[in-house]
Amino acid sequence: MTASTNSPHLTVSLKLLLPLLASILAVSPLAVDMYLSAMPTLAEHLNTPMSMVQNSLSVYLLGYALGLILFGPMADKYSRRKLVLIGIGGFCIASLLLPFVTNIEQFLTVRFFQAFVSSAATVVVPGAVREYYGKDTAKGLSYVSMIMMLAPMIAPSIGSVLLLAHSWQLIFYVLSAYSFIVLLLVIKYLPDAANITDSTAGNLSVKVKAQLSFIQRYKIVLNNAEARLDILTSMMVSLAFFAYLTAIPYVYLKVFAVSEYNFSLLFALNVFALMIAHFTNTRFVVRMGSRTMLRVGLTIAVLAATALTLVNILQLPLIFTVIAIFPLMGSISLVAVNSDALILTKFPEHSGTVTAVIGTLRWGIGALAGPILGIFYDGSAKPFALLMLFAVLVVLCCQLLVWLRNKVS
After folding, report:
1. Residue 350's pLDDT is what?
2. Backbone phi, then psi, for 64, in 5-degree steps?
3. Long-range pairs of 212-216 with CB within 8 A, sequence gap ≥ 24
4. Does residue 123 contact residue 356 with C-beta atoms inside 8 Å?
């Protein structure tokens, strides 16, 4: 299967397109995960409390969410390829600037810009996958996510090696080099999906849709009752994921006092759980459907989150936390990819706006994970476990409402 734009030299097979889309999506996970092990060193270098450096994660999420609000509807109207070039190019420049900051305020400002501009690139990816996979969008998203998950799996280890080999600054130089390579690949190989749609449709309705305002596009998405419940599902799964991402360096490095090397291994183990979940989804989603796969993932998530909470309330050894987190991370990943696919397939002509809605709310609520955990901080892993359980139970309520609505109709 191939995809082509109006320019004959831009022809690319799905075998190349999927890794390319995954490499674009991997930009933000790399930016988030690669410097986790360097946080204590960064705090010392900038002469600031560790909590301020941890807040840089929330600042990144906020910047990304706000960027999606702007760039999402633009992806439905303008050239997607150009948006990717702007996003990856801006990310590359910001990554080059970060090693030169001299205080935490500068660091947070550049991180905000880095996240904001990178959203221009990543917002187009789900829509591109939907256009090439159609009703099998969940399968396509799982393939892209599975490839992309290599980034967070190896990022902490790479960050630790770069930190030991040279400095925290080298981490951001490597990020800049990676994004520059991706930029070159995008220039050479990425087709312009928006042009494909326009050339094949070629009718008045397409032109009318192109004139819809930002607000009109958002209204179309948010006025669908079932979509709202799936969007809330995506949001709460994101809260659980970013609670994990925010808390896990503290939980492993401080509460359980593991080494930085063992932390990177444990982190990679949980990313491996995400990859297993996505691979499983590619095998079964076409036959079973996204809704069924979502419910399977949710069932596992409820059991695993409950187990994680009990393990930490009872203050059991590290191995029990590791055993509980592994299926929990895989299951929330299963819920996330299928809820996104269900939403995207409801609005085929507004994929950019849908991605913006999902991403803005997802990353926006993800930015709250740090402050929430800070409020309930008690020196243990219990707040983290309880927040994960709370998020999963809200997802359960949402999907029960979807089930009741479908049963009545």
Report:
1. 65
2. -65, -45
3. 212/73, 212/76, 214/73
4. yes
Q: Which two structure tokens, joined as six digits, stand for 63? A: 């910047």
Angle, nearest 10°, between helix axes 168-189 and 150-165?
140
β-pairing, 11-13 with 2-4?
Answer: antiparallel
What domains sit in the chain, N to C, each tagged with a CATH number? 11-193+212-408 (1.20.1250.20)
Residue type, 148: M
Q: Which residues of 293-314 are buried (b: 16+ CB within 10 A; e: fewer)?
A: bbbbbbebbbebbbbbbebbee
- The whole-angstrom separation of Cα 168 and Cα 69 is 31
Give pLDDT tens digits for 183-222.
999 888 777 654 444 444 444 444 444 445 556 666 766 7
pLDDT tens by residue, 308-341: 999 999 999 999 999 999 999 999 989 988 888 8
Q: Long-range contacts made by residues 96-105, C-beta under 8 angstroms, separation at least 24?
A: 96/172, 96/173, 96/176, 98/169, 98/172, 99/169, 99/170, 99/172, 99/173, 101/46, 102/46, 103/46, 103/47, 103/48, 104/46, 104/48, 104/52, 104/53, 104/56
Taking alpha carbons only, the member of 357, 352, 383 closest to residue 369 is: 383
